[in-house]
Write a structure and sequence with these properties.
By secondary structure, the protein is α/β, with parallel strands linked by helices. The chain has three domains: 1-98, no CATH class; 99-195, Beta-Lactamase, CATH 3.30.450.90; 201-450, Rossmann fold. It has helices spanning 3-10, 31-45, 55-75, 82-97, 103-107, 140-151, 201-207, 212-223, 238-246, 289-296, 313-322, 337-349, 357-367, 431-436; strands at residues 111-117, 122-126, 129-132, 164-168, 174-178, 188-192, 228-232, 255-259, 271-275, 303-306, 329-333, 370-376, 382-394, 397-411, 417-423. α2 (31-45) packs across α4 (82-97) and α10 packs parallel to α11 (313-322). The termini are far apart.
Amino acid sequence: MSLMSRLKEQDAVTQEDKPYQVLSETPGKFQEPVLAIHREVIKEMGADLNPGRNDEQAGQIEQEVRQVAESHLERLDRYFTKVEREQIIRQVMDEVVGYGPITPLLKDETVSEVMVNGPGQVFVERRGKLELTAVTFRNNDHLYNIIERIIAPLGRRIDESVPMVDGRLPDGSRVNAIIPPLALNGCILTIRKFSSQLLKIEDLIRNGTLTLPMAKFLEGCVKGRLNIVVSGGTGAGKTSTLNIISAFIPHDERIITIEDSAELDLNQDHVITLETRPANIDQRGEISIRDLVRNSLRMRPDRLVVGEVRGGEALDMLQAMNTGHDGSLTTGHSNSPRDMISRLETMVLMAGIDFPIRAIREQISSAVDLIVHQSRLQDGSRKITHITEVLGMEGDIITLQDVFIFDKRGLDERGKVKGIHRATGLKPRCIDKLVAMGIHIPDEYFRPEREGL
């Protein structure tokens, strides 16, 4: 038996026996044949088509790409195993109908974020921890072409005159790109993936993000039309928590959601989804969150759910909460519940209206009922570390009261955070309001001996 025959016999394993993520293990191994076949595909098919198409069109194009690639592989003066041939063909298809070398990462369900720091370095976030991958791009032009392909179907552009862009993929994933001369490492691409499996409150309890008493309390507060702010740092899971607690809103209410990039997915019957619009090429036509908040108040909402307040829209949101739109929900960046109050003060000042600081604090204290603070801890886990009630004003200070906290108790031998959720023992003042609305939460939920339940 010849050497070639023995090699082919050893290559009996099929592609199904290998995980798709095998491509990311040796991404640069077949760059030369992939580039050659890619050029051949473009020559024969006429254009490098964008990936924004329906399943039927994509399937047809993939079949055509496969035929051209297989034909060209037969003409190459080099032997490839069956698995290697399949890897090359898949990489070519990723170049033509996908998003290049990062396509396997975007298909990997364990990856929550993809961070491309120039052509030679790609990080991912898995289970809250950053990992360096072996994925690379050929050069900066290759990466730039992939960025253009991603944003072209979104009606956006990126070049030296517009070197930054935000967008949303068809599956809801958030995209941010920034290119030279602003980025000195080369083109930078960040994609925060939209989970295809939406979490429910039961998942948060199972994951240890919060406890059953905390979940029941939040459910009662949402149904009782308390105004809630979900706070936390970048990547803490604020939007996911907002989406989960928004599911407690009754189905007979009219809900308007407002976001920069639509990520919330509510299952109620009466949901209106609004999304901001960036300025066009002439730097005109921008529609901000503040514009949408103002307009939404004319749309007869029962509930306003704002994805994130980060500027002058905070003033409009607070005024809405104070003028009959009880039960509104939003998120904001902060390091603690107290810091969230300071951030709201700053954002109100960004509205350009010269309010006395006491007047701003009175607006905040009368509008916000509850702050739910979430953190991503050292081990990558996400915890709701505080559920804090806003009590009102004492002099010039807004007073807060922790109802539930996460009591952190160091790290174990595997580097996992040790700690428990527990009640502080202070009964929330809002309980009386909830009782008046027919919502009863057991007093035992607020006893400190109930820790960890």
